[in-house]
Amino acid sequence: MLIVDGTNQVFGRMASKIAKALLNGEEVLLVNAEKIIIVGPKHYILDKFRLRRSWKNKANPEHSPYWPRRPDLLVKRMIRGMLPRKKARGRMALKRLKVLIGNPDNLEGVQFEEAKPKSLKSYLTINELVRELGWRHG
Questions:
Q1: Which of 74, 85, 104, 137 could form a disulfide with 90 if both were Cys (CB 3.0 to 4.6 A apart)?
Q2: 3-state DSSP call for residue 121?
Q3: Cα(67)–Cα(78) distance, rounded to whole angstroms?
Q4: C-alpha distances out from residue 112 to 5, 6, 12, 64, Å
Q5: Phi, psi at residue 125, to the nearest 5°?
Q6: What is the pTM of this model?
Q7: 15-40 pLDDT, tens per residue?
Q8: Which CATH class is domain 2-133?
């Protein structure tokens, strides 16, 4: 099992490594999902996610895309976009992914795979993003 700590990691780089590991058959546990960094201007990131949450199917709004507000579910949804989820291989890969908010006590002392981000000028953490989208817990 591959255990990844999301603290101060750039989302795209980390998620592509996770997606590749999932497609290779590994089980992946991602902890501290709320501390992942999305790089870019804050207003651009917020506008992009607000637009995604506002998409509605006029014929039947229940068939609209669903974007969660919880950090762990949002990160899992974003990683899902990197997998071929309409094929059996992609669906099985997504089942091998577990995303957690925080770091549970039973994982203390485990070595995490870490990718150091370069110096970042403007970024937004997942926690700040979901608070702007309306998540009020934790």
A1: 85
A2: coil
A3: 9
A4: 6, 9, 17, 36
A5: -85, 160
A6: 0.85
A7: 999 999 999 999 999 999 999 999 99
A8: alpha beta
